[in-house]
Amino acid sequence: MTAAQQLPALAAPATGTTVTCVFAILGGDGPAAPAAGPEGGHEGGGALRLLPLAARLRALVQDVPAADFTEDALRRRLADPARLEVCARAHHAVVTAAAAGGPVVPLPLATLFTDDRRAVAALDARRQQFLAALELVTGRAEWALKVSAGRPEASAAPAAGHPSPVPAGGQGAAYLARVRGQERDRTARQEAALRAARHAHDTAAAFAVSSVRRRPHGTEVTGRDRHQVLNAAYLVDDARAAELASAVRALAGTYRDLGLHVELSGPWVPYSFTGQTAGEGE
């Protein structure tokens, strides 16, 4: 859980026409708020602005229509994939634009307060966590590493519920031997993929100050023909990013004979690490 995820959302019914939506926490020496445009925040909201906090921190906020961000309205929006995507993209665009000018602590989507006063009180209570997070991510970025394997051919084993008939006599023994051999091959491929995933993670982690391994994505993300064996994020010094990329390229060449696909992406805003202190994570 990140420091941001411990913050309350809208804790009381709004009394005005707008509420304060907080996107991220910035240090005192960062740039001004991103200009209006693609990074202009939520539709119908006011201009992005910076709200002064304790310890020279600043919150990047926007006044948004209270009627659009009631509990019921948010529930409907988050349950609608298309509307959720629009909302998430607007939030991410603001955070990304702010991060272009310096380190930020991104807050969760729809971090809302009834007014600036409540926002300041809640955020100031977390100032030590925000300061530690900013120190950790300064001069660093998040990189994502994913490793996936091709699934065995569908013909390698009978489909569930439709077993193939076992031939009689000596042919039956040969058939069973083939099935056992196919199962051994599948097991060997799975074990090789898992070993490669561990090796890939250890290789990338050697360039990082912190890392996080997540649950691999399912087929709804990877596609039915791929099986993800590693889904991890790494916090890497900007000066070491090229070394990381070179090491991952070498891994991709090594794993190609195993039928593994290696994907490195970044640099990203360090969403995965803004609640950690140095040394936490894997």
Describe this structure in words.
It holds the Pfam family GvpL_GvpF. Belongs to the gas vesicle GvpF/GvpL family. The chain has helices at 71-79, 81-99, 116-124, 127-137, 169-205, 219-222, 241-255; strands spanning 18-26, 49-52, 58-65, 104-113, 140-150, 208-213, 226-237, 260-268. The protein has 282 residues and is α+β, with helices and mostly antiparallel strands. It is elongated and about 80 Å long. A hairpin with a 5-residue loop joins strand 2 (49-52) and strand 3 (58-65). It has 2 domains: 4-138, no CATH class; 141-273, Alpha-Beta Plaits (2-Layer Sandwich), CATH 3.30.70.
Fold topology:
Layout lengths: L17 E9 L22 E4 L5 E8 L5 H9 L1 H19 L4 E10 L2 H9 L2 H11 L2 E11 L18 H37 L2 E6 L5 H4 L3 E12 L3 H15 L4 E9 L14
Helix pairs in contact: 5-7
